[in-house]
Amino acid sequence: MGYHAEYEASLQDPESYWLKAAEAIDWDVAPTQALFERGNHMYEWFADARVNTCYNAIDRHVENGRADQAAIIYDSPITGTKSSITYAQLQTRVAALAGGLAAKGVRKGDRVIIYMPMVPEALEAMLACARIGAVHSVVFGGFAANELAVRIDDCTPKAIIAASCGLEPNRVVAYKPLIDGAIELASHTPEFTVILQRDQHPCDLGANDVDWHNFQKGTAPAPCVPVEGTHPAYILYTSGTTGAPKGVVRPTAGHLVALNWTMKNIYDVDPGDVFWAASDVGWVVGHSYICYAPLIHGNTTVVFEGKPVGTPDASTFWRVISEHNVRSFFTAPTAIRAVKRDDPEGKLAAGFDLSGLRALYLAGERADPDTIEWAQQLLGKPVYDHWWQTETGYTIAGNPAGLEALPVKIGSPTVPMPGYDVQILDDAGHPLPAGELGAIVVKLPLPPGTLPTLWNAEERFKKSYLTAFPGFYETGDAGMIDEDGYLYIMARTDDVINVAGHRLSTGGMEEVLAGHKDVAECAVIGVTDQLKGQMPVGFMCLNTASGRVHAEVVAECVKRVRDRIGPVAAFKLAVVVDRLPKTRSGKILRATMVKIADSEAYKMPATIDDPAILDEIKVALKTIGYAKD
Ligand code: COA
Ligand code: AMP
């Protein structure tokens, strides 16, 4: 079957379509039914099945002839380390860690926060939780203690699993002070923290801390615990309009079925092939394509600890691809832009044999045509943009290369994947014809593996995704579909921005700025950036009585965002202004400010009727070095 037949089949008869896909999973109790309608536009998949994710990702491969195949290749230019772990070794290590957790009382349904850098142990921690039915929540290492505390209070973990440090090119990131700070800030206190000591920066253990290796000693390896198909595999927090992150819940069975389907049909790899997603386990790409999907499908996954440039140079990607014979490679456009910036002619790729590579996949942010064309020319291979979200866990629209490679149209992530009935609606909820821009929505039900709800926040789930367009899931992206059915993603419809492929909330940054004692009001907008796609810029009005030197307040605000949200917010551009442009009803015209900042000649949008404010914004942008004229 080609793409079109497969897509139609998935929408016409989802029940048969997904039950067939489910045959590739090893069940403890196989599903007899795929879709369960729960009323009020709420759905579940494979609710009557029982299954274990870790068994499907590790044990079944050990039993079926892959025991000696590498499951994980660890390549860490930042520490100068390379190693590999077979499926059999991974089984021993994960069962031992899971046994240690079980001996300390972690049970099915308990939450465990994982705060780790890109080391194989991060995957082992995720899989150990899955083995015993515990629900992990991985927190990206670039978030500050406060963000960790918010997540601790929301998912109330029994334990934290962490490393002593992460490594950035310019510094060692000591995790222990961040964890201690978070526990201090949080109302909920986890019972214990498991710490993986790293040679680069070991830490002192406190009363509730246990050493990764010591605490497993003398405990029995844990068997796989079968869980209900709807059991949460994990919670992953992501940014929304306000500062409070949303805990996206991933249902176990749908996750297994859907991810396994994507490996051949989208990424065109066969079991045994090496697959590499250069991302971080703290993001959804890392969950799905560094950890779960490649392992479920019997591939070898690469855990890469480093940056695309600078460690040692812009040849790193090409070296890793050739050295480990990577078949399909996935990263964010920003990483390719960084490589292109340092090696515009691609000279550094020349020394490497990239013949084993089949295609490059890009996602996480808009893929600009220059970057796609540059990569296509350099590699002589297809470059596939694909569009998805933390909420879905895998591709909404992409090029199903393993099923039927469709012609690439640069600027489009191609077509909706099976199960996703993507439509474009106007503000009133009416369908728009081909070529017209509107809200991108997906007709309910969403396919298996996508979020059924938000952790502890069913009402927020309904309000955020199901209310604006009844019967549809609101993606938060705007775009259009062309005559050939190709989708184009143009912009977000909320306050989410995308900085270096990292999803951030400008509302969250505004909350931090507004907490500064001298700030009366503020606006944070995302402006276009050549490397990172977008960069946040803060505009602050100070209290009249403040009398402070502006530069001092700016420096304090920049530090405040770094301390409260984390370095990953990349909040470095901020400026004090006298006023912010507003509507008559007092709403700040953020979208207009973005248009001004990104317009080459600072053209005056019609919405600003006071030219003095426009001048002020122009001067402010020049002050911070963001000048276009
Ligand atoms: N732990 C601690 N700090 C981290 C971190 C982590 N895991 N990841 C990033 N940071 C820090 C960086 O050190 C940087 O700090 P600085 O302000 O002191 O320089 C800051 O957060 C901003 O990071 P980033 O926006 O990533 O910028 P960068 O200059 O370090 O790197 C790229 C730029 C493009 C090379 C890098 O973003 C990259 O490789 N991106 C790939 C995209 C990706 O993985 N996306 C995930 C979704 S697919
Ligand atoms: P995240 O949940 O962090 O994966 O971010 C999801 C958001 O990133 C989407 O809603 C889009 O706004 C954006 N995004 C992801 N992939 C793409 C893409 N291929 N093209 C355009 N935007 C994308």
What secondary-structure arrangement, pairings included, does this model have?
Blueprint (H helix, E strand, L loop, with lengths): L2 H10 L1 H8 L13 E5 L2 E4 L4 E2 L1 H14 L3 E7 L4 E6 H17 L7 E5 L4 H13 L2 E4 L6 H11 L3 E5 L1 E4 L2 E4 H11 L6 E5 L12 E3 L15 E2 L3 E7 L7 E6 H14 L8 E4 L6 H13 L3 E5 L11 H8 L2 E6 L1 H10 L16 E4 L6 H11 L3 E3 L11 E2 L2 H4 L10 E2 L4 E5 L12 E6 L14 H9 L5 E10 L5 E6 L3 E4 L2 E4 H9 L4 E11 L3 E10 L7 H15 L8 E4 L13 H9 L12 H13 L6
Parallel strand pairs: 4-17, 6-7, 6-8, 8-11, 11-12, 16-17, 16-18, 18-19, 19-20, 30-31
Antiparallel strand pairs: 1-2, 3-13, 4-5, 9-10, 14-15, 21-22, 23-24, 24-25, 25-26, 27-28, 29-30
Helix pairs in contact: 1-2, 3-4, 3-5, 3-9, 4-5, 6-7, 8-9, 11-12
Bound molecules: coenzyme A and adenosine monophosphate (AMP).
The site of coenzyme A has 25 residues, from strand 9 and helix 11.
A few lines on this structure:
This protein is α/β, with parallel strands linked by helices. Among the domains are: 86-225, Rossmann fold (3-Layer(aba) Sandwich), CATH 3.40.50; 498-623, ANL, C-terminal domain (GMP Synthetase, Chain A, domain 3, 2-Layer Sandwich), CATH 3.30.300.
Strand order of the largest sheet: 5-4-17-16-18-19-20
- Which stretches are poorly predicted, pLDDT < 50 over at least 5 residues? none
Tell me what the CATH architecture of the domain at 86-225 is: 3-Layer(aba) Sandwich
Report the structural category. Answer: alpha/beta
Termini gap: 54 Å
Helix content: 25-40%
| CATH T-level fold name of the domain at 86-225 | Rossmann fold
Query: What ligand molecules are bound, each kind once?
Result: coenzyme A, adenosine monophosphate
| Principal-axes shape call | globular
Q: What integer value in Å does the Rg equal?
A: 24 Å
Mean pLDDT across all residues, rounded?
95
Number of strands: 31
**Strand-residue proportion:** 15-25%
